[in-house]
Amino acid sequence: MKRCILGIIIFITVCCFGITASADSMTELSVLYNLNFVDSAADLDSVVTKGDFAAALIRVIGMDKTDVTNYYTSFRDLSTRSENYNALLIAEKLGIVSGDEYGNIRPDESISYNQAVKMLVNLLGYGDYAQTTAPYPLGHSIVASRLKLDSGVGVSGDELISWRDAAKLLYNSLDVKILNKITAGQKTSYSTSDSKTLLYAYHGIIKAKGTVCGTGHVKLSDDVVCGAYEVNIGGDCYVPGDVDLSDYLGYEVEYYYSEKDNVSTLLCAFPTDKNRVITISGDKVRTFTGTKIEYYAENSPKVFTEDIDFSARILYNSAPAGRIASDMIAGQEGNIKLIDSNGDGSFESVIIEVIKSFVVG
């Protein structure tokens, strides 16, 4: 006689069109690295120089390979031997940086929060607007706060920024709408476009959140329609590229994608911090209904109860199915994963991997 192992996967989810992986749980540096805006983590607590921050900004807008043969600088202390010479030339030409009253930029000097915010606000097109709000540094600081560029940044004013703070500033800027200045005679006005963020304007990259409802052949319901090798997030289809979301079915994710020739390609994706996940051993399950699961604590007779959303959908053996009987789960060998992807306290998704053995011949 031979013993065969049959793997049964049961997936219950409320998502009609998608649950995503989590974006708030990702580090800002992870996003910047995956979008090829930084090379590595380095020492996050080390201070940043003016030249380094300018170089980071130029890389974020994709101009770090620009030919600067015909560029000239007005900075008296900027030498061609400077590590960030090219980046500072480009930043000066774009109006991102300016020198002091003596015409010096001091590229190797550590940069303060005020100075970094000024560069970033200028890059986003809000420099002149900030000046009309209040003189520097107050005007730029006010604008930065309104744009939430300072979210999570641990310093302010003339305090020096670390690479940790720099990463947060850069990350916070990615989906900020670029400001356009419009001058007509003596009148000046400003406008933004919902689609023209820093990411989209320079790279054609879009940031979004959604539910992962299908990866390849595994779909949470029959109304999830995508190609055999595509990913469904929030009802939309994406070419996965190098992004593997198979472990994030039922999760909320923040993701980044590009569009070309009507094809959307994922660049990176991360679970958000809304996701609450509980994993239960199958032999600890006491009862299971469509809306509730009771299970024993590890090494304890205490019974816990978790609510399952009444509209949860079921994926049985990689195919959408109806209700699942309690005895198909309770006491079985395997694991049950409960996922609450929207933070409402009720689990919209349940993934059950049960191993059953049977005798052949």
What does this protein structure show overall?
It contains eight helices and 17 strands. The protein is of the alpha+beta class and 361 residues long. The protein has helices spanning 28-34, 50-60, 85-93, 113-123, 127-133, 138-146, 163-173, 198-203, and strands spanning 2-13, 180-184, 187-191, 205-215, 218-219, 231-233, 236-238, 252-260, 263-271, 276-281, 285-288, 292-296, 303-307, 313-316, 319-321, 333-340, 349-360. Residues 1-26 and 357-361 have low confidence and may be disordered. The protein is 20% helix and 29% strand. Helix 1 packs across helix 7.
List the topology elements:
Elements: E1 2-13, H1 28-34, H2 50-60, H3 85-93, H4 113-123, H5 127-133, H6 138-146, H7 163-173, E2 180-184, E3 187-191, H8 198-203, E4 205-215, E5 218-219, E6 231-233, E7 236-238, E8 252-260, E9 263-271, E10 276-281, E11 285-288, E12 292-296, E13 303-307, E14 313-316, E15 319-321, E16 333-340, E17 349-360
Antiparallel strand pairs: 1-14, 1-17, 2-3, 4-5, 4-6, 4-8, 6-7, 8-9, 10-16, 11-12, 12-13, 14-15, 16-17
Helix pairs in contact: 1-7, 2-3, 2-4, 4-6, 5-6
